[in-house]
Amino acid sequence: MDQSYTLNQEHLLRVVYPKEHIASEVSRLAEEINAAYAGRELLVIVVLKGALFFAADLLRGLRIPVRVDFVKLSSYDGTMSSGQVQLTKDLDSEVAGRDVLVVEDIIDTGLTLSFLVDLLHRRGVGTLRVCTLIDKKERRQTELEPDFAGFHCPGGFLVGYGLDYNERLRELPSIFEVVENNTEP
Ligand code: IMP
Ligand code: MG
Q1: Mean pLDDT for the chain?
Q2: Would you say the pTM of this structure is higher than 0.85?
Q3: 13 alpha carbon to ligand 2 midpoint, in Å?
Q4: Residue 154 CB partners (closer than 8 Å, separation 6+)
Q5: Which residues line ligand 1 (CB under 6 A)?
Q6: SS3 (DSSP) at 181
Q7: Is 147 a catalytic residue?
Q8: Model confidence pLDDT, tens digit, residues 109-160
C-alpha cells in the first residue's frame, strides 16, 4: 500500500509519509512529551476521529501516568473547512486545574483547535499544550501554534493513518496526498 495508486478517474494517491517515517516521528514526539511532563500526570484529549491512530501509537510511547478522553469536533465538508466548528461529542472528564495535552492529527487553518482551546480555557484547565502529527502552518488563520509538532506540510489534502476523505481511507497505514490524475485514460 506504499505505492501511488488510483483513487478514482480524477485522483491518485501519492505517498508522502510512509509508515516507517510515521513510526519514528511518533516515537520522537513521545520522548519530547515524556521529558516535558516528567513526574506529572497528564490528561490526554484525543480529537476524534482523525487523531485516533496517531494517539494510539503516541500513548504507547509515553512513560508518564495518563488518562485519556475524547472530543469530537466537526468543521469539514469534503475537503473544505466550513469554518463553523461544532462540538459533537463532549469530554467525560473535568479539566479544571489539570495538565492537559490535546492530540490532533493535523492543524490546517487552526479554527477547529482554537475552538477547543478556548473551551478548555473557559473550563479552567490548569496547563494546556497541543500535539499534532502534521502542521500545515502556512494555512493558519488563527494564532494557534502547536507545542509538539511532527511533520511540516505546506499544503495538499492528505489521507490515511486516521485522515479521511469523506470518511474513507482512514485505515491506510501510510499517509498519502490526493493528487489530480493527469494521465490519459
Ligand atoms: P482546521 O480547523 O482547518 O485546522 O482543520 C483541522 C481538521 O480538519 C483536522 O483535525 C482534520 O481532521 C481535518 N483536516 C485538515 N486538513 C486535512 C487533510 O489534509 N486531510 C484530512 N483531514 C484534514
Ligand atoms: Mg482532526
Answers
A1: 93
A2: yes
A3: 20
A4: 136, 138
A5: 47, 50, 75-76, 81, 104-113, 157-158, 163-164
A6: coil
A7: no
A8: 999 999 999 999 999 999 999 999 999 999 999 999 999 999 999 889 999 9
